# Entry
Amino acid sequence: MNAHTETKPAAAVNETTQKASETTLLDPRFYTTDFDELDRIDVTPVREEWDKLIAEMRSDPNKTHFKKTEDWDPVDWENMDPELKKELTDFLVSSLTAEFSGCVLYKEMKRRGNNPDICELFNYMARDEARHAGFINDALREANIGVNLGFLTKAKKYTYFRPKFIYYATYLSEKIGYARYITIYRHLEKHPEHRIHPIFKWFEQWCNDEFRHGEAFALLMKTDPKLTESFVNKLWIRFFLVAVFSVMYVRDHARPAFHEALGIDIDEYDHEVFRKTSVIARQVFPIEVDIDNPRWQRGLERLRAAMTDMDSARRKGGVGGFFGRMTAGARSGAAFMSLYMIPVKRNAVPENPRLVPAY
# Structure
């Protein structure tokens, strides 16, 4: 009998894997791009700093970091508050998906490219992201809710972005990831009683990988001044700044129990992450979002309310749910546009973009 060969793969696709494979406005995405264009990059204009960064990545400073040690405290998943368990799981799955997304993209570039500079960079970044995703997955397996990464690679929808959009989006993703992780880590250093999971102990060195990856994309953007200096590309940079910040805000506010358990005020935490990311991004972006403008917080709240209503309408289904989604979608679009239209701050980009982690 061969019937059992049909059912085994399905059994491996648990609810967590199905959740990770979803593609919505707020879920981390998998990307593909024009790999031939990436392969034609010439890093000569930034060669000195490029070689220093590649040497640092080649030395693999976090080679032994992503291993459980005696500092890995047991987690009582069975007796955890159900809402906290749900939101902690969502945080870990979302983080895993984002890390694995980078791994898939970087590995594909390494596989398809011929440019030795670019292939070496993407090889190291794929290595780092694979470790991050695997470490998170080990934490999920403790609760018997690990993600089937092989299934995720095949089932997740891929979004095509031109290389310059990959630069903007991934640069911000890596830098905001650094800002998020280091802000949580520093907070829990002062308040260890709120450390609800041992994985947070690994965040300090972990986020330095994110920082280095962001440095790589900053250098890639510096190879072609038009990427950050042309009028049209400044509009795109503005779009990605608003998009990345606002998605983070909406996603974080969907996890109130998680942040309460960490002892974190969501609004203060998000604003601090926006501030850190904005300061860091001055290394390469000539503009920054004015997060102190009163319209900024009001716009984020309007967007959050619209996205919450859209999710409720989606779950409701039917004709009423359809019209609810359309109405909420229009409101979210208007809220995003209001955020986009807030006057930006100008920034004089330094000649040498390289930074070191300072938080």
Remarks:
- The beta strands are 30-32, 158-160, 287-288, 345-346.
- The longest strand covers residues 30-32.
